[in-house]
Amino acid sequence: MHAHLLPLGGALALFLLLFAASRFAPWGLGLAFALAALLYLGLLRWQGGLLRRGPSRAALERLAMREAWRRGGFLRPEDLLPFLSEAEARALLEGLAARGLCRREGEGFRF
């Protein structure tokens, strides 16, 4: 349901704008509907591609840093389980440690 909200909102806004710009003429209704339908399909395809790819590596790193900040600067891979599997979380935190953004302390990582 939520995945269709952006395309529907964009199509509705374009439809109303074009129909009002044509001064509510009958030909404007058809033109506005056709262009709004094209916009809806285009936005739906674009948004679907973004959702299939998932979050970027940078977004996941920001998420880990934000969680570490919320937890007082110490983060374990288990703390990221609502967002990632444990293996992915461990790999993400190891990558951050390799770049010098945190250091390993026992079972977790200190930021």
TrEMBL record:
Transmembrane annotation, as ranges: 30-47
Superkingdom assignment: Bacteria
Alphabetically ordered keywords of this record: Membrane, Transmembrane, Transmembrane helix
Claim: Transmembrane helix is one of the keywords in the record: yes
Protein name: Uncharacterized protein
Native organism: Thermus thermamylovorans
